[in-house]
Specification:
405 residues, alpha+beta, Immunoglobulin-like, 4 domains, six-stranded antiparallel β-sheet, five-stranded antiparallel β-sheet, 8 helices, 33% strand, globular
Length: 405
């Protein structure tokens, strides 16, 4: 079965122009609040309130998600368009009831199971790329887990925002984890992100600049920007189109479940699971064949169109960029080869020659809207397979990042 990975971020869009100053005051029911975090999601624009509960934030003109966050209070996500901003903002925070169950938190034991789940979380969230090796969660102790063995479902929660030190990209990152789910088929994570640049000498600055460009090149944002500008071919992308259908050679989930149940009921009869079966003669033979065929992929992909042009993928109407392609896209980035870690990412993977980075875009909705900066307005509208599922949070950059060569 082809694993599906869905990476979900709560993102915002913006356009770079001038630099207005956003001002405001934060209260709760008792008065002003000091040290409240106020920042623009997924950018390096952020501050905290002073003793008067006031904040002042200089930003670049555009549309953002303004996050107001204070431990123990409900988070505020405010849609901010600087072109409509005319007067200081006022927010009143409400206390969060049962933000995390204290009884559950008290049960956290930093044992071998917690360590195992932590590694699974880091692999699924940060990734296992060369850049992720220098991406460290500083306060791992705030994370706790819930694992459902029946569904093989791992969920992660955090008592406080995650503090991440990305020594490869030169960022200190605050990530407010909203949800993390890992199953057999997909990984999803949601959160709010604030970036701060690390300090370093010329050598470090050059390394960070180089690595940021590596993270950007071949990314979803890079692809979507080049698609909007109709430069994707020049920048190394080939877009193919494919249709996905159910694999007729694979039994239905109902048949697989019945076969497994039958084998479970007869587990005391020394079943020979390696038995070669050409023609099933008994119900147990049929069950064994069914379970073996369950390993086949659920779907088959059929490529039916190569080297698509811009107008076959995206349209621009009413000042809006919309993805309008049918079925699914295979995106090949020819300017970089796969990492060895991607080739050997699965237990049964065999070493082979690296090829171009190939990713799949599987739409979950019709007419998917892009903003001008190459960000999906609704990240939940697609999921990614292939190389983009390998490059996880450790490859993410602030939305205000501008590539320099």
């Amino acid at each position: 079965m082809k694993n599906r990975f869905l990476f979900l971020f709560i993102l915002s869009s913006f356009t770079l122009w001038c630099q207005p100053t956003i001002k405001g005051t934060i209260y709760d029911k008792n008065g002003v609040l000091e040290n409240v975090a106020v920042y623009l999601n997924n950018t390096m624009f952020g501050t905290t309130t002073d003793v008067k509960g006031e904040f002042e934030l200089q930003v670049k003109e555009g549309q953002y998600e303004l996050i107001v966050s204070y431990l123990g209070y409900k988070k505020i996500v405010y849609s901010l368009n600087t072109s409509n901003y005319t007067k200081p903002l006022t927010f009143v925070l409400e206390e969060e009831e049962n933000i995390l169950d204290e009884i559950v938190i008290k049960k956290i034991v930093y044992d071998e199971e917690w360590k195992y789940n932590l590694q699974a979380f880091k692999d699924g969230f940060l990734g296992r790329t060369s850049l992720s090796k220098d991406c460290e969660i500083i306060n791992e102790e705030v994370i706790f887990f819930d694992f459902n063995r029946k569904d093989n479902k791992l969920e992660a929660f955090a008592k406080k925002p995650l503090k991440i030190k990305h020594k490869a990209l030169g960022y200190i990152i605050t990530f407010e984890l909203e949800s993390f789910v890992r199953t057999n088929d997909y990984i999803t994570y949601l959160g709010y992100t604030r970036y701060e640049e690390m300090k370093g000498g010329n050598r470090k600055q050059k390394r960070w600049k180089k690595n940021r460009l590596i993270a950007y090149k071949g990314s979803q944002v890079h692809f979507y920007k080049s698609l909007i500008n109709d430069t994707f071919t020049k920048e190394g992308y080939i877009i193919n189109q494919f249709k996905r259908v159910e694999n007729p050679e694979r039994p239905t989930e109902q048949k697989i479940q019945k076969a497994r149940e039958l084998l479970r009921l007869n587990r005391n009869f020394n079943l020979d699971f390696s038995k070669k079966i050409v023609t099933p003669l008994t119900a147990l033979d049929s069950a064994l064949v069914t379970v073996r065929r369950a390993r086949l992929p659920k779907f088959k992909d059929y490529l039916y169109k190569s080297k698509l042009k811009k107008d076959e993928v995206i349209s621009f109407k009413n000042n809006t960029n919309t993805l309008t392609f049918d079925n699914n896209l295979s995106v090949v980035y020819t300017n970089e080869k796969e990492e060895e870690g991607y080739i050997l990412r699965n237990v049964f993977s065999k070493k082979r020659e690296a090829t171009y980075q190939t990713s799949s875009i599987i739409p979950l909705e019709k007419n998917i809207v892009l903003d001008k900066s190459g960000i999906l307005i609704k990240p939940l509208s697609v999921f990614y397979e292939g190389y983009w599922s390998y490059e996880k949070f450790a490859h993410a950059l602030p939305l205000d990042y501008e590539p320099t060569h």
